[in-house]
Amino acid sequence: MCESCNSTIWLRYAVFCQTCQKHKHRKCEKVASGVVLENYMCKKCKRDGKAGGSDLTAESGAETSKAVGNRMDSDSSLRCELCEQLAEENGRLIQERDSLKEIIVQLRKDMEELKSNRQNEVQEKDPNQWVDIPTRSDKCEKPRRRKSVVELRNRFEVLSECSGNDCENSAGNVVSGCVSGSASRKVKPKKKKKVLLVSSSQGRYCSQILGDKLGKDFEVSSVVKPNAKFRNVVESVDKLVKNYGKDDCVIVLAGGNDEEDSDFRENLSDGVKQIMALKNKTRVIVNALPPRYDKEELMGKVRLMNRFLHSEINTKGNWDNKNIQVNFAMERMERMCFTRHGLHLNKYGKQVFCDRMVKLLRDFEKMESDKQITFLGN
Questions:
Q1: Domain locations along the chain
Q2: Confidence of residue 104 (pLDDT cuts 50, 70, 90)
Q3: Element at 219 (helix H, strand E)
């Protein structure tokens, strides 16, 4: 029971008075909840017995100061013991360090002596003296078979014992046999077919893919000119194909940088003239311009340029020549074959392009059309 309000008390809401030894409400004593109080004195005890409270406080203070002094004495004694232990440990470590230094010095001396002895042995050693190499005795050596020596005998007659005509005949037979045998052993290496890819930035890395797909029978090389016009891409091609023959081929992939120019006819016409210079020397595959998915307004112009390229090649009087073809499949390339911005071919598009070039190169001599220009949409 709380003496202030005469009601029941829950211990969690009460404080304990050390003077009267009773529990009281925190609310009645005006003590905030959650505050921990030691040696608490309630209001009633403070009013009734202040002297007793002061005496109690003084006695508790004396006892506290005495306890603190004893604790300080114990701490100082403990500190002294720890200092002595640390000093002993430090001395022991110093002794170990000094002993290790002596060992290191002795080892260095031994190493120098061994090195000097080794040098003396090398200098005194005779270079012409045989050295016995020790072998492992734990392995059982198998008995070695003695190799039989085959006595060589000359199957031909000695020239000095033959007559003049006989000697000439026998020598001629021997020489002719050797020459015919060596000639029969010679194997001519198979000549690789050469493929040259000239392109703008669209054909970058396509030569590697073509080389992997064609195999060892073809030698693929490329000349890539980024941001170049059609005529700039195909210029000086005749110098690069000096050693090319009718079994070799030149692939042209250009014209994408002429689509925004108003004078594209002049650029394409100049490029076609340079391509026609190769018609009697090697085979040529001219690819149509690819679509421009980055600018939809240029789609119609791309088709117009491809038709102009087709007509320019036809008007040069090359219908009877089968060495030049125009691949119009590039004009029908789908959107998935291009990069996100829609201008260049992506990895998949380059794979599709190279597959079509491989098909043309494999079936070049099997074309049914007798005309020079062939429309290829597959």
A1: 11-48, 66-118, 194-366
A2: very high
A3: strand 218-224
